[in-house]
Amino acid sequence: MHLIRPAQPSDAAAILDLIHELAIFEREPDGVKNTEADLVAHLFGADPKVHAHVVEEHGTVLGFALWYLTYSTWEGTHGIHLEDLYVRESARGAGHGKALLATLAQIAVERGYRRVEWSVLDWNEPAIGFYDSLGAGSMEGWTVRRLEGAALAALGNRK
């Protein structure tokens, strides 16, 4: 039996390990710059803007959902953006991912939020199939844009 619960500071090392596993899965093994100290500061500091839930079985963290609030000007309320959902490969198929998403959906419903949204890599067919099975639709006509690195610095330093 698994337990879904809000992450605690003592989970930071396990969450970081899962983030590294996710990066390998997403073909970016050297992409993670996050640290255990960063996670503790951002998730459990004085005014956290990021939240996480973990799935635990027999005292071992098997997966996590890391999320933050968004705001929709059209809906006039907050939503949840799921930054990462990851379950260890050895623990998949047991309902852990669905339980994590159901927890976020429950939070959204209880708080009157109208959305839980996330991105998925277009080649990740198992995840897309899983999300489709839950009724999560794709945002047709929308693409994700990102400003980073030199382009971010150039625009951010523009006066």
From TrEMBL:
The keyword DNA repair does not apply. Residues 2-159 form the N-acetyltransferase domain. This is Ribosomal protein S18 acetylase RimI-like enzyme. It comes from Paeniglutamicibacter sulfureus. The keyword Ligase does not apply. PANTHER family: DIAMINE N-ACETYLTRANSFERASE (PTHR10545), GH14572P-RELATED (PTHR10545:SF29). Pfam families: Acetyltransf_1. Keywords: Acyltransferase, Transferase. It comes from the Bacteria. InterPro entries: Acyl_CoA_acyltransferase (IPR016181), Diverse_Substrate_AcTransf (IPR051016), GNAT_dom (IPR000182). PROSITE patterns: GNAT (PS51186). Transmembrane segments: none annotated.
